[in-house]
Amino acid sequence: MRNNIKIMGRSWNFKSHSLAGALAIMLAALLWSIDGLFIRPRFYILPAEMVVFWEHFLGFIVLSPFIFLNWHKIKLISKKSWGALIWISFFGGALGTIMITKAFFAAMDGQASFATVIILQKLQPIFALFLASILLKERLPRFFYLWAVIAVTASYFIALGQSGLDISTINWQHSAALFAFIAAFAFGSSTVFGKRVANHLDYKIVAALRFGLTAILVLGLAIFTGTIGQTSQLSLIHWELLGLIVLTSGAGAMFIYYFGLRRVSASAATILELFWPFSALILDYVFNHNYLNYIQVIAFIVLLVAFYKIYLLDKLKSVTFKAKVISGSQRGRVLGYPTANLDKTDLDIPHGVYIVKLQLAGQDYLGLMHFGFKDVFDEPVSLEILIKDFVGDIYGQEMSVTVIKKIREVEKFSGAEELQVAIKRDLSILADFSKGKNML
Fold first, then answer.
1. pLDDT value, residue 345
2. Where in the sequence is the domain holding 29, given as residue range(s)?
3. Is the separation of the CB atoms in 124 and 184 below 8 Å?
4. pLDDT for 435
5. Which helix (H) or strand (E) holds 22?
6. How far apart are the C-alpha atoms of 390 and 364, rounded to whole Å?
7. Based on the domain organization, do 309 and 323 belong to the same domain?
8. Mean pLDDT in each 10-residue stretch from start to end of the chain (440 residues)?
């Protein structure tokens, strides 16, 4: 099946769109590897809450311009999206970061091995895959989950191929094990809720709000525990390292991560995050000259194959929902392309223009669905469907809609003529689809 569609002389490759997302998540994982190996251990004598507050506060300062530049969009964020933002800020930002920091600090203190922390982190995809299925209704091909299991297993051997740690030997009474387990759940659930909000908001806004909300939450905790008063213990080198974290594994990595999360499923994202043990061992080899044994080399190859297979299989099965037709602004009718406005605007799919199948009054139709802000980008989210070969009054009626394929992003148009050209372009793609041309 081809992924290229030629539109007005330009070739659009929708699979390359997801490839950019996959590479972005793997790059973020690489930056997290650098943090865990070379930066965060330098802070282990300091309170984790205080360190996490400053890395998020400084990160928020760097990202805050995106909030001021997009304030008109932020005012339109739905309650559902705010709930997801608060979740990822508390679990992924505050709790998860504090717990994994404490886990590594406890391991450096001799309470447990680093291998214990790493193996428990491998539970993160299990939490994420389960929650993505329940909350986001992600339904991926069966072989996706097979390769997900293979990727998790390969990452286990990559990270622990030399130590040979068995999960049955983990002492759960040690705080490092408990901290790592909590972090795995926090980060796994944050991936799922992050996907929900990244579907509907620009990734730059998501990263900025996440760091701002997390800074507020951790500041409250640091004040409650009294650790914020130990800021004076930060030396000049600590401040320099905090600045490095902001630009790399902190704000920089999350900025890149949310760019990628918009373009792949939450299930694929959590597996691609396993790139961090891969990149960590590469860095360990380059800088510390620690060689891999044959088990780890084989696991490397298997993990790379699993990543490739997951990238190919990251294609969600169709989403179906029911909604009622409501009155709208009549803008589509004025343009010569009347649309049906629907009352459901909280779908867990990315904003964009889609080809859909719909059932109305017992009849099946094909159509184009616009989901997202309108082209002026200062109105509430709308869900509109242009029904192919249909004329009639359907206000108040309910229809069943099956989303087939996204064909483009929501765009901002300079005027009515440019919008009409885009609609004609979309209808041409829909016509080729209805004729059975293998363009999608």
1. 77
2. 12-313
3. yes
4. 79
5. helix 14-34
6. 11
7. no
8. 38 58 92 85 90 96 94 83 95 92 79 68 86 86 90 80 57 73 92 91 93 96 94 95 94 94 89 80 69 79 89 79 81 70 84 89 88 63 84 84 87 78 88 68
CATH code of the domain in which 393 resides: 2.40.30.30
In a domain, 197, yes or no: yes
355 and 396 inside one domain: yes
The residue among 81, 152, 172, 170 whose CA lies nearest residue 307 is 152
Backbone φ/ψ region at 352: left (φ over 0), alpha (ψ -120 to 50), beta: left
Residue from 392, 342, 387, 337 nearest 366 by CA: 387
**Alpha-carbon gap, residue 291 to 289, rounded angstroms:** 6
Place of tokens 């508390």: 90
Question: Are residue 98 and residue 71 in the same domain, yes or no?
Answer: yes
Give the pTM: 0.80
Cα distance between residue 393 and residue 399, in whole Å = 13
3-state secondary structure of 348: coil
CA distances from 324 to 292, 340, 375, 399 (A): 59, 9, 23, 6
Q: Report CA Rg, the chain.
A: 24
For helices 14-34 and 294-313, angle between their N-to-C axes, nearest 10 degrees: 140
User: 165-188 burial by CB neighbour count: b if 16+ within 10 A, else e?
Assistant: beeeebeeebbbbbbbbbbbbbbb
Residues 161 and 220 both lie in one domain: yes
* Stretch (H or E) spanning 158: helix 142-160
> Does 7 map to a domain?
no
**What whole-number distance in Å separates Cα of residue 152 and Cα of residue 126?**
9
Same domain, yes or no: 326 and 180: no
* CA distance linking residue 346 with residue 328, whole number of Å: 17
Determine, yes or no, domain membership for 1.
no
22's tokens? 């996959």
The region, left, alpha or beta by phi > 0 then psi within -120 to 50, assigned to residue 306 is: alpha
Residue 204, domain member (yes or no) = yes
**pLDDT for 316:** 67
Is residue 267 within 8 A of residue 316, CB to CB? The reply is no
Give the pairing type, strands 363-372 and 352-360. antiparallel
